[in-house]
Amino acid sequence: MKITRQGRTGLKIVLLCCVWYSISSTNNVIGKIVLTNFPFPLSVTMVHLGSIAIYSGPVLAVGGIRPSLDMDWPSWARCILPLVLGKFFTSLTSHVSLWKVPVSYAHTVKATMPFFTVILTKLILGQSQTLAVYCSLIPIISGVIIATVTEISFDMVGLLAALSSTIVFALQNIYTKKVMHDRQVHHLRLLHILARLALLCFLPIWIFYDTPRLLRNRELTKHTDLLTVILLFIDGFLNFAQNLVAFTMLNMLSPLTYSVCNATKRICIISFSLFMLHNPVTAANVFGMSLAIFGVLLYNKAKLDAHRRKELPTYHTVTAQGDSIASKVSDAKSRLAKTANGFTKPNNILFEHVFSNNNNNNSHYLPLVHS
After folding, report:
1. Helix crossing, 5-37 with 41-62: angle to 10°?
2. Alpha carbon distances (Å) from 367 to 189, 234, 248, 250, 345
3. What pLDDT does residue 222 have?
4. What pLDDT is attached to residue 341?
5. What is the pTM assigned to this prediction?
6. Could you give the 3-state DSSP secondary structure of residue 317?
7. 259 CB-contact burial (10 Å; exposed 0-12 / middle 13-18 / buried 19+)
8. Residue 165 has what pLDDT?
9. What is its main location (predicted)?
10. CA distance 232 to 230
């Protein structure tokens, strides 16, 4: 049986999703093990940034992508520097949250991303959402509150770190879309530049802050076995790999479809961490996590419906007087496209939505890669 182009592309997306979910779940579990045995989140962050900077170089070379970026200093300061700060801060606070609280709870808190995105989009861009979008935020907030109240291993620092990471990440994505829209920056080049600059900028902080702590805690570092060191570097490579897959998927998918895949990834991470790490949970805790993730799925559905209404096709009807009247079709007729000879044929609207990447403008944006 011959597989169509749409079928091949769909199969490729499914396989990429499976790889993405597997890498991300393993990355989070290994990261938790590393931070438990080696409680230095700043050092782990530097390993992650270094891994991305090192491993992305050969990828750029194979793809024939120039690693440098032609931009004057004011543009660097206005466009790139805030993204570098955001990249470092979100990575560091993510590791702090992973260190202080269970993986499942940290990712439940990160499910509040839509809530902060809606608020920041309104404050910064002045964009309002539909009623369905606002209503979808209720189960998200309710679920996170229930999960927080019932979390057995609750830690305030872990909660604040996860919330801070989520807020800055939402702000970072909005800022990227606002500033970088007209700058033709390849997504992998952007990843390479941000990791490299974040590593260089914050290397002095690591030297002055973590190096003395590592020297003072010689008893701890002395008992850090070879396995933990190996896991630390495996964790760095997996972080690079999940960033690479996520950037690739965002470049292939529409932002809304990517958000749905990202929400599903969070479900896999929570489930896998509970299975592998066996951290204690209650029925109410699981209910809170499930409610928050369900709210994220509702949010994506509401955004998808709003997008479809906005993108309904326009038809021009010629009256007897020769006037052209434009109208949008909101029923089943919207799924029909007129051919040149006046006949109609079905449009594959689902395929066009799932794989539409807005004329490749997604490559300008920093994707929603939030480990």
Report:
1. 150
2. 13, 23, 10, 7, 35
3. 65
4. 40
5. 0.79
6. strand
7. buried
8. 93
9. membrane
10. 5
